[in-house]
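4.2 Preliminary Data

To establish feasibility before requesting continued support, the project team ran the inverse folding procedure on a target of 133 residues. The structure was first converted into the token representation described in Section 3, and no sequence information of any kind was made available to the design step. The complete token record follows.
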């Protein structure tokens, strides 16, 4: 059995924390560009949000590099046909399934919201799928 590399585990933990910071600060970054999202009291936190996003922006490339390191360290993954077939089955099909379900959910939700607000299907679809309350 191969021994775990502590430095890679530490890097993975740091990158995970940074990904959480990216997602949390993304909500506030949207507020910066959207008028009246959080109100005037938020303007004092723009610098903090920007700092979190800049400091944690390394996380996604680190995860890509770690995935490549772990994938290439296994001898059976040297055969690229085997590797891509395995990845398609374990990642590709669930991602495609979730994407289709999420797309259908969003459209059904918008249609239901539009019908509740007494809009016609044509008005809902002409509005780009977004229903304004």
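Position-by-position output of the design step:
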């Amino acid at each position: 059995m191969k021994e775990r590399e502590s430095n890679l585990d530490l890097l993975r933990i740091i990158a995970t924390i940074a990904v959480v910071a990216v997602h949390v600060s993304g909500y506030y970054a949207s507020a910066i560009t959207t008028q009246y999202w959080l109100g005037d009291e938020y303007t004092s936190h723009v610098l903090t949000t920007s700092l979190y996003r800049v400091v944690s922006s390394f996380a996604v490339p680190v995860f890509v590099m770690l995935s490549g390191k772990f994938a290439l360290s296994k001898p059976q993954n040297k055969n690229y046909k085997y590797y891509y077939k395995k990845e398609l089955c374990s990642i590709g099909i669930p991602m495609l399934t979730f994407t289709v379900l999420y797309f259908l959910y969003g459209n059904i939700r918008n249609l239901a919201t539009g019908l509740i607000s007494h809009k016609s299907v044509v008005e809902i679809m002409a509005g780009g799928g977004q229903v304004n309350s």
